[in-house]
Structures are given as structure tokens and as C-alpha cells.
# Entry
Amino acid sequence: MNWDSRKTSALKKATILFFSVVFFFASFAAVSAQKKFTKNYPASKNVRLQLTNRTGTVTVEGWDKAEISISAYLEAPAANIEPQSLSGTIVVNLVKDNQGRNEVGNVNFLIRVPYSSSVDIETRMGNLNVSDVRGGLVRAHISSEGDITLTNIAAENVAAENVIGDIFFDGTIAESGSYRFTSTRGNINLRIPFNSSFRLVATAPSTRNISLGDFASGMRFVSDGRRVVGQAGDGSATIAVTNQRGSISFIRR
Amino acid sequence: MNCEQCQELISVYLDSELENKVRVEIQMHLAMCAECAKVCEDFAMILDFCDLEESEYAPPPNPKALWCRINNLIETEVAPEILKEAEIRAEQKRRRWQFSFSQVFASILGIALFSSLMTLIVIKNFSAPIDVSANTAPSLFDRALGKVGLIETPKQTRENRVKGQQAAIDYWNKRVEAKRANWNANLREGFDRNLNEINQVVFEYDQILQQNPNDDLSGEMLDSALNEKMELLREFAEL
# Structure
């Protein structure tokens, strides 16, 4: 190895080291700019969580404890968070708590609730994830864009709405339950047990892309293939799915 | 005594009800003051005139009996006319309820037609099963009823609903415009992207409905898209 090649190699190493140090400090600065908020509330089995976020990701998980744990990661400029416990309902409303405040950063929530809780969450923008919840209600509403992922849900009333983004539901269909999924652009995928009984109205007017999979029996396409109506089993529950410019798929669980 | 005091006491003075001392003071003032003397003179004239009128227009000796006579006179003159008018009215009433056979038949036919029409309208509007999958054109009968304004055609119903939604959208849009300057760039871009997406959907259904106004599904989807737009604006206006 001659002197020139040694010199080039040393220069390369020095450059890599320099950028590694810069990257490390930049990452540290980004992490330290985030604030964390944590609070726990004792909760009854059928507690209700009502959360309204501005922007950011919200993750709600069911757990085997009689308490609600709220962890929020606040990006700068930090938002105000003032959760309230009102007769069996934990209310967190970041829109109300920060009304008129300029430039509020994202707030990412990780909330743990008892399995049998009801969960009513909404955000103006960002993803919503709910898993392992078996209460009376699961509602996930995104005013604009973001994905909604509902996994291992066993609730009688489920509603998921967004404008742009995918919706995924993986859960059971309760007898006499009501299930509503609405999107403007994105894919709606529903994973439900084969023996579910329900009445279905699924509408995908632009794409006409409605895939019924193993649930095709008892269903018929109407309005030039833009809508599917029908019944599975005794049809005691109702499922209404509307996707203006995307697809709808049923998957056997 | 000054003029004001004097003029206040003139009427009592003319009635001769003053004490001697005051009466003398007034007389002295009247002798010296031409203005007060004129006022006193006028008062005296008015009092004299009143006394005169009272005697000239004295009430009759038995006014009650006089009124009774006048009343009797009026009643004897008016009663025959009233009787005549009552007879004419009774005659008119009798004539009014006398119909020819053709009039009766036409009336029954009219009532039957009207009640059938109303029954059909009620059945159409309130009892018809809602078939969400149907894409039906209005029947000739529906169109005829719509033309005469007895029922709203689906198009009219949709237009009215859209008008209401559009008014709400305009309201929330103004609120958003006032607030969006406070949002961060990311939020503004996201909002615009989503609003644009919904606007495209609205435009598409509007086009479809212009080509086929009887496409119920497109009407339903337009309604849904406008509601979504309203919700988006309302929820962002809260920020």
C-alpha cells in the first residue's frame, strides 16, 4: 500500500467518524426534544376511554389490570395534556386543551386499558391502533389521513372512519352488533370468523373492487357491481362498509 | 303683591271668598297693574258667560222619559227593515243547499279522486320499502305528481339537501380560513390534500348525476361525500 492510498483510507475513516458523531448528537437532540407524560388511573372493568388527539399516533392496548395507563410522547412545541376522570370515563382532549395555540407538535400516545373497556378515540391526523379490547364500543375516527388498525377486537359496536388511509379490522362479530367502516381512499380489510352471521351492505362505487372471499354465499352484487348486499347466517348483526375510491376485502379469520 | 300672586288669586277674588286684607291688596294691585286688570276682566267675562249658558241650556224637566220616547220611535222605524233582511238571508240559505243531480255527482267524484290521490301520495312517501340497491327511475305517475308540486322528485330532494349541506360547508370553510394561519405546514398540507380528495369525489358524483339524475347510489355517495367534507371542515375549525 503506497502513501497516497493510506492517506485516502485515513481520510475516509475520519469522514465516517465525523458523520457518526454528528448523527449521534443529532439523534440525541431529537430524543431529548421530546417530552414524556405518564399517568395511571384506577379503573373499573367497563371503563370508557375517550381520547381526542390533534396529530400523532395513538395506540391503545388491552391488558389484564384494573387500571388505565397513559403515556404520551410530546414533540416540541409541546402540547398541554390534562386528562380527566369523569364518572367511569377517562377523557383526554388535546384539541380542547390546546385550542387557539399556534404550532403544537405531534403527540404520540400509548394507552393501556382493561380488556373490557370501551374505547372512543379520534385524531385530526395520524394513525390509530387498537388491540385486545372486548368492551361494548370501539370507535376510531381520523378526520383526515392515517391508517386504522383494529386487532383482536370483540366489541358489539365498532366504527372506523378516515379520509385517506387503510382500515384493517380483525375481530369477532357479536350477535346484534353494529359494524361500520368508512373511507374515501384506501383499502378496507376485514378479517372475521367464518361462522359470523350478519347483514352486509358493502359499497365501493369507483373501483367496484369488493372481494368477499369465503363470505360470498348469500351475497349479491347490485347497482352495476358497485355494491354488495346480502346476509350471512341469521344476519342478526349489521356490517356497513363504504369505500369511495378504494377496495373492500373480507378475509376468513 | 306681585303679578304672579295676584293672578293666582283672581279666581278666588271673583268668587268673593277672600279675606278683607288680601282682597284690598288685590284691588290695589289691579288699580296699578293694567295687565292683571285685563286678566281679571277676562276671567269675569268668562264667568258671566258660563252663568248665561247654564240658564239657556237647562236640562228638560224629565230627561229619562224623553230618552224613552226617542228609543221607541227608532225601534218602530228600524224593526220592519231588520225583519225583511232576515227573510232574504233565510231564502239565500235555502237556495245555497239546493243542488242539482249533476252538481252532487261531480262533487262525489271530486272527493273520491282527491282522497285516492292523497292515499297514493301517503303510500308513496311513507310506506314504500327502501331498496338501497335499486336504481329506479321515477314512474310516470311520480313525475306527474312532481310536476304539479304534490311530491318532491328525488332530484328536488337531493338538490334541497345539497343546498343545505353547501351552506354548512361555506360556514365551516370561513371558520377554517380564519384559523389555518395558526396551523403548522404539515397540518395545512394534510388538510388540503384530504379536502382535495373529497372535492374530487364530489365532482365525480356531480358529473354522474348530471348524466343520470336517477342514479340513487351516486346520489347517496354524493350525500356521504358532502357530509365528510362538512365533518372535515368542522373538525379542523376547532383547532
Remarks:
- Residues 28-32 of chain A have pLDDT under 50 and may be disordered.
